[in-house]
Amino acid sequence: MAPYEPEQNTNEAEAPRAGRRKAARYAVPVAVAGVAAATIGLVPALATSGDPKLPDVTAQELIEKIAASDTEQLSGTVKISTDLGLPSLGGGMTGGFAPGGGGGEDGEGSSADPQSKLMELATGTHTLRVAADGPDKQKLSVLDDAAEYSLIHNGDDVWAYDSKSNEVYHSKSAGKAGESGKDSGKTDLPKDVPSTPKELAEEALKAVDDTTSVKVDGTAQVAGRDAYRLVIKPKQAGSTVGQITVSVDSKTGTPLKFTLSPAGGGSAVVDAGFTKVDFAKPSASTFDFTPPKGAKVTEADDAKAEQQKHGFKGDAKEFKGEEDLNGLNVIGKGWNSIAELELPGGQGLPTAESGDVPADAQRLLDSLGDKVSGKFGEGTVFKTRLINALITDDGKVYAGAVTKDALVKAANAAN
Which CATH class is domain 327-413? Predict the structure, then answer.
């Protein structure tokens, strides 16, 4: 991929034509820029010089090309790296998410259950093999050094296989759009773990006002394909997001690479891109799956019944977003949006002084956070390279993709 070029000949305009807003209705989600939605003002900009040489396009035209992309058949290899700057806890926090890393709630269930398995993509570096043939056939495999985890959707069936534990998880896929029936709209697949550049780009390009500059900034080659670089950058100060760069295939409009760079510099927070890609129709056998001999097979309905038997009611109510968070209030807008809510019981984190937390656990909490004070009282800011959260001693939480100072300022203003 060609190195980043300094901004030149971009000629940002502040008033996009109303008739070209169809592809601009996007919103930056929780997974990319914090709890509150950020917004993007889509402005025309000519591509700068780069390698390879491609015809000039505007940012609006490139986003419309992404939205109009009808790529349904492809196969390839994706490398995804995530670095939130969290400390290593010796596998205690992530062991259950790694291939072969453990079962469901309280040790029950299947280690192949995709609901938790794909959360491993939220940390570290992973190599994925992906394939798709329309809306009813997809396959994603997470490759480990000596094991593989595969998730296969083929028609009505969804199979997940963990080769390390030799366990299989089977469920029925969601009904097709507009299909009636008791199972329509239900699925056992995780909804909020984008795993390809296209999914990440779609999440990052969802809505619209003047808090962001968007421009085409040069070209690149990704997985042997000519691509434009679309750069999305906050105009507001105080965000932890530096910029988002999406490399878009010049022929198909398919995002080939997604990079989220932090405002503080250093390595990308999220970097996902194809290292190989082929837009030909995959072989039908790619999506075939038969449980290997001797594998433990868990049916989704049986797993849920077992969890409920042990008192886990996680599927009793589907989480629908902000409306399910009692007392949620969004402060500010755009990239500086901060979510404010209250912890149950109206009190802050338990402490060693109160006898609710072991001393070692208290030291760990202290190492992860910074003590702060202000008009709101006292509290602790827990930081990552992207999302920060202030928890006050009286049980209020302020969280967003913003700096520590922005959180303290928001807490002071709310009191």
Answer: alpha beta
